[in-house]
Specification:
alpha/beta; 3 domains; 15 helices; six-stranded parallel sheet; binds [cytidine-5'-phosphate] glycerylphosphoric acid ester; Rossmann fold
């Protein structure tokens, strides 16, 4: 009996896939089809797969062409499968020409002509095209422009900015002043906002009025009342209003939160997060300073996220200590917040112009999780115990600082009308509440 094997994602199964399976089957007597696991697709940069693994397997099964279906989970598995199943022929589409010649050592390798004019990518893009406008004054917009290339169906519709010095040449060419925001909104389906937090409310409400979905750099606003209004506006119009907090979308970060919640370090008793950066305050002129984010705005949301995700948002008390920049009553260069919960504590330190070790430590009754600096770009963490032989290291690939995963998730949320909970709304609201209190200068210790 001649055994043939072939592999694929088979997202939105189409006649190109079916023709390939038919020809692969005709090469022998028994066809094994390897369907890629979601984590393997993610690792190889295929981020936009729409259907779940089960749905994709089901679609392949329904063709009646596969005698056996297996799951492809890791790089290098093909060699193992070929040997394990005693495969005679490996078949794949000609878009992979030459890429699998290394398998010739184990079996015959056949490249079959790819069917022209159809692909899962086209099908996905046709279904949903999203025009994303960029709004604000930050070099991070360059990263969004770059990362949008990895997201099928997403195009940048334009840029509104009053401070274009840090923008890439491509963005500079499309940039219009903030006074023309309405014209950007009218050619966009959604916008990404990274204007100074003082302007978020105005920019978000105008976007929602125009029927645009919003992805806004956290905090969404610096005033809890305004946040309530914006949430109501978004709900009324069936529009997404989502925090842009890229750390939430890092696989390593997401997994470490799940691990901590699963009890791997016992009961969590302390979460300590530090995030700092050098804002180059001496170099900044008056115009720059207008757009520069202070510590609590720039880093507060990121640092509060693990605290609220692990300990909840019902803290009993918080003590805020801050250091304001001389002559700038609204610019904190450093802020420390200590939270007390009924059975736990937490602390955060944020600095913009003050530098410290940017690590995250989650302490528990059995052990602790340590994420080295810069933890907000998590790709690695350690679970540590008293007995170091039990320590475990975890590594997950992080591409584009998490921005591309966040864009994919935002797109999916718009398509499905359902926001996947990388960042719970209660956490987002609690972040705004702390920042709102900060600006009301409630019970703050100044140093
Ligand atoms: N295919 C085709 N014609 C098309 C589209 C796809 O012949 N118009 C073939 C591909 O060449 C591949 C199979 O259908 O052999 C599955 O395609 P995808 O679902 O796009 O999967 P792919 O990313 O090619 O996965 O490690 C190799 C992968 O597992 C192959």
């Amino acid at each position: 009996m001649k055994k043939v094997i072939t592999y694929g994602t088979y997202d939105l199964l189409h006649h190109g896939h079916i023709r390939l399976l038919e020809r692969a089957k005709a090469l022998g007597d028994y066809l094994i089809v390897g369907v890629t696991a979601d984590s393997f697709d993610q690792a190889r940069g295929k981020l936009n797969v729409e259907q779940s693994l089960m749905d994709r397997i089901e679609a392949v099964r329904a063709t009646g062409l596969a005698d056996e279906i297996i799951v492809e989970e890791y790089e290098g598995q093909k060699i193992d499968d070929i040997q394990r199943y005693g495969v005679d022929i490996f078949a794949i589409g000609s878009d992979w020409l030459g890429k699998f010649d290394y398998l010739k050592e184990y079996c015959e390798v056949v490249y079959l002509d790819r069917t022209q004019g159809i692909s899962s990518t086209d099908l996905r893009a046709k279904e949903h095209q999203l025009r994303l406008g960029l709004v604000g004054e930050s070099p991070i917009m360059n990263k969004f422009e770059h990362e949008s290339q990895f997201v099928n169906g997403l195009t940048i519709s334009g840029v509104c900015s009053d401070h274009t010095r840090h923008l890439s040449e491509t963005l500079k060419q499309q940039a219009m002043p903030m006074s023309e925001l309405d014209s950007l909104l009218s050619k966009s389906d959604a916008i990404y906002i990274i204007s100074n937090t003082r302007y978020h409310y105005d920019h978000i409400s105008r976007a929602l009025e125009h029927g645009c979905h919003v992805l806004c750099e956290s905090p969404i606003t610096i005033n809890s009342e305004q946040l309530k209004q914006l949430r109501a506006m978004a709900a009324e119009r069936n529009l997404m209003l989502v925090d842009s907090l890229k750390t939430a979308y890092s696989m390593a970060y997401y997994r470490l939160i799940l691990l901590a919640k699963s009890g791997i370090i016992g009961r969590v008793v302390s979460v300590d997060a530090t995030c700092t950066s050098m804002a180059n305050l001496e170099m900044s002129d008056e115009h720059d300073m207008n757009y520069l984010w202070n510590s609590i705005d720039a880093w507060g949301p990121t640092a509060m996220m693990p605290i609220f995700q692990l300990l909840g948002t019902d803290y009993c008390s918080k003590t805020v200590t801050t250091h304001l920049l001389e002559g700038r009553p609204d610019f904190d260069a450093f802020t420390k917040i200590a939270f007390v919960y009924p059975h736990a504590v937490a602390s955060l330190k944020v600095g913009q112009g003050v530098k410290s070790e940017g690590s995250l430590v989650i302490s528990g009754t059995k052990g602790y999780i340590y994420v080295p600096a810069p933890w907000w770009k998590t790709d690695y963490f350690e679970v540590r115990y008293e007995n170091s032989a039990e320590n475990r290291r975890h590594f997950y690939q992080l591409d584009g600082e998490g921005i591309r995963y966040m864009l994919v998730s935002f797109l999916k949320a718009i398509q499905t009308g359902r926001h996947i909970n990388y960042l719970d709304q209660t956490v987002s609201d609690a972040i705004v509440k702390v920042i709102s209190d900060f600006y009301r200068k409630e019970k703050i210790i100044f140093i």
